[in-house]
Amino acid sequence: MANQLSSLDQIFAALADPTRRAIVMRLCAGEASVGELADPFDMALPSFMKHIHVLETSGLVQSEKSGRVRTCRLSADALVGAEDWFQQQRAVWEARLDRFEAYVMKLKKEKERTAAKRPSRTTKRKGS
Amino acid sequence: MANQLSSLDQIFAALADPTRRAIVMRLCAGEASVGELADPFDMALPSFMKHIHVLETSGLVQSEKSGRVRTCRLSADALVGAEDWFQQQRAVWEARLDRFEAYVMKLKKEKERTAAKRPSRTTKRKGS
DNA sequence: TGTATAGTTAGCTTCATGGCTAACCAATTA
DNA sequence: TAATTGGTTAGCCATGAAGCTAACTATACA
């Protein structure tokens, strides 16, 4: 598990680049060699390798060299770690929305109570 | 909705910075002025404003100025858009795992069938 | 009207990122 | 053993990101 939280920086930074997102997407479908991964991209190999390296230091990708070919695979943990972050934020966000909604409901009820006391003023007024 | 997909670059880049993630987290709990947001950070205001601006152009945050105070709020759409990306990747990833598992099961069965033919070799061998 | 407050603009520095070429191993294969 | 293939290292360049200060605008308050 390690400290995934502190590496959110690197994970999000890694995913901020379209080339690297494409690599991740490709690796979701299964492992591949550096050459296979690089093929669809119009980019010099050393440049491409930098992307691989960024993905590796972020923990999103692991690789292993056997013979002269390096095989890359996705490391799901990091992806899940990032996804968790969103879910945590959403939890807070939704809790707030719930509270807000409750607040609005309360206002609404109060308004209705007031309206019940002064039925003549409940019709449309004007403007928004 | 617009083109959230093409702005994943900006969303992830925005979230790659701890200051900006903290701002997002703070805004999950409700809107706040620039000053309130900036307060916990030991950073010059212009520097901080850059972060706000990055968050705004990424679509994660919206702001509005009334009088001399600018109020910021979270724009959930962008967050959800980014979360969706993870879920899509996970879907592909899990589909692959399922296929892989099926493959492993197949191998296992084949092995068992082979083992049934040569029962003497099925005991422990050594090492991992 | 004068002063404090809340942001904003401009402009500077420093460092990281993303790209390139050229040259270089180290396995394979002929 | 020689040539090819797959990747790696080193080093360069241009751009952009993240921080700063100083000076400015515009609202609110006394």
From TrEMBL, chains A, B:
SMART domains reported in the protein's UniProt record: HTH_ARSR
Coiled-coil segments: none
UniProt signal peptide: none
HTH arsR-type domain sequence ranges: 1-94
SUPFAM superfamilies, sorted: Winged helix' DNA-binding domain
One Pfam match: HTH_20
NCBIfam families: HTH_metalloreg
Protein name: Helix-turn-helix transcriptional regulator
Organism, scientific name: Bradyrhizobium agreste
